[in-house]
Write a structure and sequence with these properties.
The protein is α+β, with helices and mostly antiparallel strands. It has 15 helices and 37 strands. Strands 8, 9, 10, 11, 12, 13, 14 and 15 form an 8-stranded mixed sheet that branches. Strands 24, 25, 30, 31, 34, 35, 36 and 37 form an 8-stranded mixed sheet that branches. It has a 6-stranded antiparallel sheet with strand order 4-3-2-5-6-29, with helices on one face. A hairpin with a 4-residue loop joins strand 34 (713-720) and strand 35.
Length: 818
């Protein structure tokens, strides 16, 4: 049977090589020797993730991926085998890119007669921007290939995974965001049947099945917890809404394993309400802070003791923390009515929403772990990064977060906000400078050696400009004061120097190295370079980690400031080395056998550092072997003619011949450099700061990142204490007070020696202490035989780009004895 099409138009599509190939593969599925070998170029339209299914006696990846491809005429959804998952993990295979599919095969589901899918067995990544997509204005206008009419019908019903035992997709990079069609049709408050201008007809609550006179209070629920029989309905208002929690596992048979907590109240008290499973797609987007609910057929159970709870003492109501209200799709099936705002009766005496706003000047006086709300004007937005959940259970999970600076006029210092994803992708991804941001339930963090900062809690909500209208917090005196301040000095603020993205980390490392012991943070546990190599290789796209290593400085080289212009559309997509001006044009070729990705040409990648050298088992590493591997496998040698900008340890010439491996991460990437804020470039810069989207849209190619100006930086070669491996890393010191990375630094004057710069993280701007880069490099001679502890900040920027920066250096005198 030929493949069938689903499309929004009745006009027959033109001939398609993709369709012809897939028809052939599906018709000859029984003959493995006819698995289709092709060299056709296709574009990636979507990459969709879901928890894998478990098979006996087979190793299980955490997730499976379906990818949608197109030849510009037809589109098709294919399964990506687990051996190619690493391409997604590293963002090598991404939406909008051009790939060549070398081999397809068709697989039938042994447990379902009607289900089969196309599998991509071998592919080659060609470029980050496919020319096949340049003329596509609407992806849905492309007909979609299906093997059978039954598969077509299922696809049209909902966008679901190729593996039929899974009903929905997850976000590509985390699990908190609602993802897919199932979340697009939430239950809405009933539409009032008459217009307000028609006074002759009254709308009663009874029309909605609501009897507000026959309800049970929160307080009485607590006291009648052990009673049996059907309980009276409850009438409550939502005070807080938690982020969405996904608890699915490879062996979970629940179709929609989701959970969300809400804090609800009436005039007698506050209690937790839990939305479970299938009800989350139906109601999570409809339940807002301030929504009034009439609920029947709910269940009560003992609360989970160890979860965090919001601070709500401003309501002066009793919190009943031993019991929680559970809403399920069955046993019993909860009946939920959302009361329209116009029908909320003041006689119900539901609590009014209140906030705990604080100013920046007052925040410093708040105790650690206290909670506050803030409203401020954004001056810096960091890139989105990920950290891996500490739990070892499958599937692995990552948290999304970004750093934001915002000012409110009460202090010269900004709020430093650590914003984790809060199930509001429309807010989290669209925070930009020069706009207002409002954050609730922010927790105060005091850390030694740094200014206090605020981090989100599970119940934090974020509102940005464009979403403040009608919100009750606009009447708060603190909020009004911020708005008045901004209006009074708007011209000054508009011209404030603001930036987006780039490397940023907070809080700063402590002045002395933490004392070794059970309570030592993981990032201050010293590891050797071979273990560091393994950790870096295991990191995924935009994942962030910190490590401490011990070693000696072997070389230091200063790389001078440079600017790199972006190529015009249609120009050759090449990797430009900013140090030498040399260009390369290579590809990534990936085999099903699981070989790791190599290198490919890219429009936006700058100064690609080579992958980690292999580590031979029994023979030393030599410079000649480095050079024989590839012209780009050796460390870039910028400023080659300037010996004044280079220093080498006297022992390096002999030590380099004895090492077994050399980690090459001594280049500064485009993703590490902050971009100046320009309103005309904001869309391009925000795309660059945010994560790669899981679905391609024409807007993805509509913007071009402006010219990147690379600051001067230092390449540092570190020899591990075991003297079997070395590492090239970057030191990018803070050079001026306007750099967001400089907020909270001590700014104590120092002599601008290499050691003092590495220890403090900044270049002292005092004229009496001024040194040129060459003089700073030369001062490294003081460290000729000095053992140091290096705190390394590492982020996977995508593909083969790894950002490895020195955050701080400790001498042995700054390390307490255990």
């Amino acid at each position: 049977m030929d493949g069938t099409a689903s499309t929004s138009t009745d006009t027959p599509p033109p001939p398609s090589l993709l369709k012809k190939t897939l028809d052939h593969v599906s018709q000859n599925w029984f003959n493995k020797s006819t698995a289709r070998q092709t060299t056709e170029s296709v574009a990636v339209l979507a990459i969709q993730r879901y928890v894998c299914q478990v098979k006996e006696n087979e190793p299980c990846e955490s997730y499976n991926y379906d990818i949608t491809i197109t030849d510009g005429v037809w589109r098709a959804k294919c399964f990506l085998p687990p051996c190619l998952n690493h391409l997604v993990h590293s963002n090598t295979l991404k939406t909008g890119s051009e790939v060549i599919i070398n081999k397809y095969s068709f697989v039938y589901d042994a447990h379902n007669v009607h289900n089969g899918y196309t599998r991509i067995d071998d592919l080659r990544c060609v470029s980050e921007k496919s020319p096949l997509l340049c003329n596509i204005k609407d992806v849905n206008s492309l007909p979609q290939w299906h093997h059978t009419d039954a598969q077509k019908s299922r696809s049209l019903e909902m966008d679901s995974p190729l593996m039929v035992n899974r009903k929905h997709y997850l976000p590509l990079w985390n699990t908190e965001f609602p993802e897919g069609d199932i979340w697009d049709c939430p239950v809405k408050p009933p539409h009032l049947p008459v217009a307000p201008s028609d006074p002759g007809v009254m709308v009663a609550l009874s029309d909605l099945g609501v009897n507000a006179k026959r309800v049970i209070s929160i307080m009485d629920l607590e006291y009648t917890f052990i009673s049996v029989g059907k309980r009276l309905p409850i009438l409550v208002k939502i005070l807080h809404k938690s982020r969405l929690r996904y608890y699915g596992k490879p062996n979970t048979k629940i179709e929609y394993p989701y959970q969300a907590y809400f804090e609800v109240a009436d005039k007698t008290g506050i209690m937790s309400l839990v939305l479970w499973n299938e009800l989350c797609p139906q109601y999570y987007k409809s339940f807002h802070v301030g929504t009034v609910l009439y609920i029947e057929d709910y269940a009560l159970k003992n609360s989970y003791r160890n979860r965090s709870r919001p601070k709500m003492d401003q309501y002066q109501l009793e919190s009943f923390n031993n019991t929680e209200i559970c809403l399920n799709a069955r046993f019993p099936a909860a009946i939920i009515t959302i009361i329209p705002d116009d029908l909320v009766d003041p006689q119900w005496e539901l609590p009014e929403l209140t906030h705990r706003f604080t100013s920046r000047s007052a925040m410093s006086t708040l105790p650690n772990n206290s909670v506050c709300d803030v409203m401020a004007f954004v001056t810096f937005v960091g890139r989105v990064e990920r950290i891996k959940s500490a739990t070892d259970t499958a599937p692995e999970k990552h948290w999304l977060f970004r750093w934001v600076h915002a000012v409110d006029g009460s202090s010269e210092l900004p709020f430093i906000l650590e914003l984790f994803s809060s199930s509001q992708p429309n807010m989290f991804d669209k925070i930009i400078p020069m706009t207002f941001v409002m954050c609730t339930q922010m927790r105060v963090c005091h850390v030694e050696g740094s200014l206090p900062y605020l981090t989100t809690s599970c119940e934090t909500e974020i509102f940005i400009s464009g979403h403040h209208k009608g919100q009750p917090y606009l009447k708060d005196p603190t909020v009004r004061k911020v708005v008045r301040w901004l209006k009074a000095i708007r011209e000054e603020v508009v011209h404030r120097e603001v930036v987006l993205g780039g490397h940023y980390r907070y809080p700063h490392p402590p002045r002395t190295f933490p004392k070794p012991g059970a309570g030592t943070p993981e990032q201050f546990s010293i590891i050797n370079l071979p273990d560091l190599r393994k950790a870096i290789e295991a990191m995924q796209y935009r994942e962030h980690k910190m490590f401490a290593i011990q070693g000696q400085i072997m070389t230091v080289r200063y790389v001078e400031k440079k600017s790199v212009s972006k190529p015009q559309d249609g120009a050759a997509q090449t990797a430009v080395d900013i140090s030498t001006g040399e260009q390369t044009a290579t590809e990534v070729h990936v085999e099903t056998g699981g070989s790791q990705p190599g290198r490919k040409r890219t429009r936006k990648t700058r100064n690609l550092e080579p992958p980690v050298d292999s580590m031979p088992a029994k023979r030393p590493h030599t410079e000649a072997e480095d050079d024989s591997q590839s012209g780009k496998q050796t460390l870039q040698q910028p400023n080659e003619g300037s010996s004044a900008l280079y220093w080498e340890n006297s022992s390096w010439s002999s030590a380099r011949l004895e090492i077994y491996g050399h980690l090459r991460h001594g280049t500064l990437h485009e993703g590490s450099v902050a971009q100046d804020f320009e309103i005309n470039d904001v869309e391009a810069i925000m795309q660059w700061c945010n994560l790669q989207p899981n679905k391609w849209t024409p807007e993805q190619f509509a913007y071009t990142l402006p010219e990147t100006v690379y600051p001067g930086y230092y390449q540092v070669t570190i020899l591990g204490m075991d003297e079997i491996m070395a590492a090239d890393v970057v030191f990018l010191p803070v050079e001026h007070a306007n750099d967001p990375r400089g907020v909270g630094l001590s700014w104590v004057k120092h002599d601008n020696s290499m050691l003092s710069c590495l220890s403090s993280g900044f270049i002292c701007q005092d004229e009496a202490k001024h040194r040129k880069p060459g003089e700073i490099v030369a001062s490294t001679s003081e460290l000729e035989k000095t053992r140091l502890i290096f705190i390394l900040d590492i982020c996977h920027l995508g593909r083969e780009k790894k950002e490895v920066l020195i955050r701080k250096v400790y001498t042995l005198n700054e390390i307490p004895h255990s």
